[in-house]
Amino acid sequence: MFNFILAIQIIVAIAMVGLILLQHGKGADAGASFGSGASGTVFGAAGSANFLTRATAVLTAIFFATSLLLAIQARKIETDQRRLDVSEIETETATPALEPIATETAEEILADADADTNAEETTKTEEATADKEQIEQELATISEAGGETEELTEEVEQEKSE
């Protein structure tokens, strides 16, 4: 019903704008805008003012009535929405949510923590092994090039000890 009334109001508003734009002001001639001296020839000599004025008055009354109906409908929808909101709040407070109960024992939690720690240590060991292999490859490259390997060997041993 609300959408139907709203559609009628939009149509009436557009029609009112058109009718108001067709009317001429006090002392203005309808034909003056078309460049001729004949005034009021479109609707007759005296008929244009009465027809357009009456049509505008009818559309204005319809627009006023639809505005009131829309306001009443909007108020009713708002009241219904408030009732829904209040009932939702009451049901939420009436049945509070239960918190889940922990099903894991302390031993299971500790076992999971140990597994995580072991995984971290394995990752660190793998990274250190990869670093060591890279350094050894660099040393081999340098020794092939004829560089001093003793100093680099000492550096590698120091890094291993760290």
Summarize this entry quickly.
This protein is mostly helical and 162 residues long. The chain has helices at 2-22, 47-94, 106-145, 149-161.
Please explain how this structure is put together:
- By secondary structure, this protein is mainly α.
- It is 75% helix and 0% strand.
- Among the domains are: 2-25 and 38-94; 132-162.
- It has 4 helices and no strands.
- The chain is elongated.
- Measured by DSSP, the beta-strand proportion falls in under 5%
Q: How many E strands?
A: 0
Question: Which value, in Å, is the CA radius of gyration?
Answer: 45 Å
Order of helices and strands: HHHH
Major β-sheet annotation: none
Q: Report the span from N to C terminus.
A: 82 Å
Mean pLDDT: 75
- Oligomerization category of the chains in this entry: single chain
Poorly predicted regions are none
Total count of helical runs of at least 4 residues? 4
Proportion of residues in helical segments? over 70%
Q: What gross morphology would you assign?
A: elongated
Q: What class do helices, strands and sheet pairing give? A: mainly alpha
Topology:
Elements: H1 2-22, H2 47-94, H3 106-145, H4 149-161
What attributes characterize this protein structure?
162 residues, mainly alpha, 0% strand
